[in-house]
TrEMBL record:
Organism phylogeny: Bacteria, Pseudomonadati, Pseudomonadota, Gammaproteobacteria, Pseudomonadales
Organism the protein comes from: Pseudomonas kilonensis
Protein known as: Uncharacterized protein
Amino acid sequence: MISLYVGFPATCFIGNDGVDAAVECLKVEFPDVRIKHVVYDARCSLSILDFCSMVGQRPGPVLLLEPIQSKVLEEVRLRLALKLPVACEMIVCEEELCAAVDTILGQFKSGEPMVPLDLAVALLVLAKLEDGHMWGGNAKGYMWAADIPKGRGVDEKYKDRVPYVLNILLQHSFLISKPSKGKSKFALNPSLKPDIYEALRLRSFPEKTGRLFLRHQQLESVRVLDDLPEYAAGRM
């Protein structure tokens, strides 16, 4: 069941029955969707940390109804829009509310937002190595290049893009490597640990690195990143 997150102004503008009636309307119109809602405070604001944490527990599309503070909207989008569809709409009736929900659910089901394929693969590679504690050192701290696109984090369908991605990550020092038996092994660069966790947390790279993941034209659904953990800010 998809979870949908809706933010309402404190004074509901849909009819005269308030937020509860609007939520009940959505539950009737979309019985297969789990509706979770928040109500803004009198300043048209909400707790960004609490809201994004709630969404992160069971990811789903986000619909924020106007009026809402622009700074709040910007911060929510910064935290979530690379992972999930986030829409902001001015709604004046139940029909418009249901139409907006229908649109954003369709975006979520179709895999939006779309991200560059190589960017997705790069993040999956970092996450797989991090999950395996591959930070160099002894032989167990490295992974054979051929073993990276073999499931358990990096699907085999990406095997044609993995060599290019590994090369870029190596050139920009996110990875280290060593030869063994005529083949290459890779590990995360422990000296760049803060940068690696920042890339995983934000799901993006510094511009010099990130633009190299934009050259390949193919896009991939951001849904392939749904199983990545939530990496805390400042993790070392």
